[in-house]
Design goal:
Elements lengths: L2 E3 L1 E6 L5 E5 L11 E9 L4 H9 L9 E4 L14 E2 L5 E8 L6 E5 L4 E6 L2 E2 L4 E2 L1 E4 L4 E7 L6 E8 L4 E6 L41 E12 L2 E6 L2 E2 L7 H6 L24 E2 L3 E5 L3 E8 L5 E5 L4 E8 L17 E2 L1 E4 L3 E8 L4 E7 L2 H5 L3 E7 L33
Parallel strand pairs: 1-14, 4-7, 16-21, 18-19, 20-28
Antiparallel strand pairs: 1-6, 2-3, 2-15, 4-5, 7-13, 8-12, 8-14, 9-10, 9-11, 9-13, 14-15, 16-17, 21-26, 22-25, 22-27, 23-24, 23-26, 27-28
Family: Belongs to the multicopper oxidase family.
Organism: Forsythia ovata
InterPro entries: Cu-oxidase_2nd (IPR001117), Cu-oxidase_C (IPR011706), Cu-oxidase_fam (IPR045087), Cupredoxin (IPR008972)
C-alpha cells in the first residue's frame, strides 16, 4: 500500500537544488481517513535564547530546518512511515503552517491534491500539484491513493526565500516554480456556516464605512531592531489594554488612534507605543495591507473572519476596487501579502471587544508589528460582550480598583 515517509534536507534555491541535510522517518498508526499535518520552520536554539536575540536588537536570522508534525530524524533510514494509505481510499490531510518565519510549499509525490477547505470555509474544489501554506494558515485537501502501491514522498519546503529549507519524504527534484496567487473562491453550494452581515450573504453590496490602510516597515530605534505598522511599533504596557478599557482608565495607560487610517509619507520615523485604534460597532470596514518589503507578510485578525477580496502587485489605490471579488471571496482570518504587493479584506465589526491584528511572523510580532482594534458596544449588554470572569487576575493600575458596573442582559 502507498506509504508516506519523511526526510529533512537543507539546500540552496538554485536551478538545481543542492541538498545537504538529515533524513528522518516517523510513524503514525491511524486508520482514520483524516489527519493534521503540521509544517513549519524551526530553530535549534530554545525560545529563551531567541528572546534574548530580539531583546538585544538582533534578528533571529534564517531558521535551521523544517519540521513535519514536530518530527526530525537521524538519516539512518530505519524509521517507519509517518502515514499509511489503503489503495483506492481518499484521505483528508489538513496542512497547517505553525512556523515562525517562512511560507511553506507542500506536495505529495505522484498525487494531486483537491482543495476543499481554507480556515473553516469550503472552497471551490480545484486540483493542485502543490500548495503554498503561509504562516498561520490551514488548508484541507483530499488525496486519493490511486497510484501503484509503493512508497511516496510528502515534501515541505520554504517559499520565496534565497535559501530553501526542505522537509522531504525521500523526494529529490528541481527548483520549484514561482508561487501562484493562491486559491480564492468560496464554494457557495457547500453547507458550511457563513457570515451573515446585515441579513445578506452579498457582502459585495454592503457600503464600506471606513478604509484602513496599513503599511509594514522595519527600522531601528536606539540601535535596536523594530517593526512597525504605519510608523507605530507596538509595545505592551504594564496594565493589559482590555483591563484598562474595562475599568475606565484607558487614558492613563494608552492613547487611542496614534495609528491613522492613512500611513504617513515617512514611515522611517518610528514611535514605540501601545497601538490601539477605535472602531465603531457593526461598521463594515475595508482593510488594505500594503507590503513595500521584499519578504512575504502574513496577517491574522483575532475575533473576526473577513472576506479576502483581492491580492495584487504594486500599490493600492481606490481605483483598484474594480478588481475586487465581490461574489465568492473566501471568508477567513489570515491573509498573505506578497513582496511589493497589497491585499484587501472586508469585514463587519460585529464582535465587541479588543482584538489584535498582528503579523504572523514571530520576530515581527514580538518587535512591534501589531495593533489592537477596540470595538465597544454602546449598549453595554451581555448580548454583545461578557463581563470579566470573577477569578480573572488583575494587575497594573487596576489591581486595587473596585469592579465596574457589570453588563446586563
Amino acid at each position: 500500500m502507498p506509504r508516506l515517509r519523511c526526510t529533512t534536507l537543507r539546500g540552496l534555491m538554485a536551478p538545481s537544488v543542492s541538498i545537504a541535510g538529515i533524513l528522518f522517518r516517523c510513524h503514525l498508526t491511524d486508520r482514520r481517513t483524516s489527519t493534521y499535518v503540521l509544517v513549519g520552520d524551526w530553530y535549534t536554539k530554545g525560545h529563551s535564547t531567541l528572546k534574548k536575540f530580539l531583546d538585544s536588537g538582533r534578528t533571529l536570522g534564517r531558521p535551521d530546518g523544517i519540521l513535519i508534525n514536530g518530527k526530525t530524524g537521524s538519516m539512518k533510514g530505519e524509521d517507519k512511515p509517518m502515514f499509511t494509505m489503503i489503495p483506492g481510499k481518499t484521505y483528508r490531510y489538513r496542512f497547517c503552517n505553525v512556523g515562525m518565519k517562512n511560507s511553506i510549499n507542500v506536495r505529495i509525490q505522484g498525487h494531486t491534491m483537491k482543495l476543499v477547505e481554507i480556515e473553516g470555509s469550503h472552497t471551490v474544489q480545484n486540483v493542485y500539484d502543490s500548495l503554498d501554506v503561509h504562516l498561520g494558515q490551514c488548508y484541507s485537501v483530499l488525496v486519493t491513493a490511486d497510484q501503484e502501491p509503493k512508497a511516496y514522498y510528502l515534501v515541505a519546503s520554504t517559499r520565496l526565500t534565497k535559501t530553501a529549507l526542505t522537509s522531504l519524504f525521500g523526494w529529490y527534484g528541481p527548483r520549484l516554480n514561482r508561487a501562484a496567487g493562491g486559491p480564492g473562491w468560496w464554494n457557495l453550494t457547500a453547507s458550511a456556516a457563513r457570515p451573515n452581515p446585515q441579513g445578506s450573504y452579498h457582502y459585495g453590496q454592503i457600503n464600506i464605512t471606513r478604509t484602513i490602510k496599513l503599511v509594514n516597515s522595519v527600522g531601528n530605534v536606539d540601535g535596536k531592531l523594530r517593526y512597525t505598522v504605519n510608523g507605530i511599533s507596538h509595545e505592551n504596557p504594564e496594565t493589559p489594554l482590555k483591563l484598562a478599557e474595562y475599568f475606565g482608565v484607558a487614558d492613563k495607560v494608552f492613547k487611542y488612534d496614534l495609528l491613522k487610517d492613512e500611513p504617513p509619507t515617512d514611515t522611517e520615523q518610528i514611535t514605540i507605543s501601545p497601538n490601539v485604534i477605535n472602531a465603531t460597532f457593526r461598521n463594515f470596514v475595508e482593510i488594505i495591507f500594503e507590503n513595500h518589503e521584499k519578504s512575504v507578510q502574513s496577517w491574522h485578525l483575532a475575533g473576526y473572519a473577513f472576506f479576502a477580496v483581492a491580492i495584487e502587485p504594486s500599490r493600492w489605490t481606490p481605483d483598484k476596487r474594480k478588481n475586487y471579488n465581490l461574489l465568492d471571496a473566501i471568508s477567513r482570518y489570515t491573509i498573505q501579502v506578497y513582496p511589493k504587493s497589497w491585499a484587501a479584506v472586508t469585514t463587519t465589526l460585529d464582535n465587541a471587544g479588543m482584538w489584535i491584528l498582528r503579523s504572523m511572523l514571530s520576530e515581527r510580532q514580538y518587535l512591534g508589528q501589531q495593533l489592537y482594534i477596540s470595538v465597544l458596544s454602546p449598549a453595554f449588554s451581555l448580548r454583545d460582550e461578557y463581563n470579566i470572569p470573577d477569578n480573572d487576575p488583575l494587575c497594573g493600575i487596576v489591581k486595587d480598583l473596585p469592579m465596574p458596573r457589570p453588563y446586563t442582559a
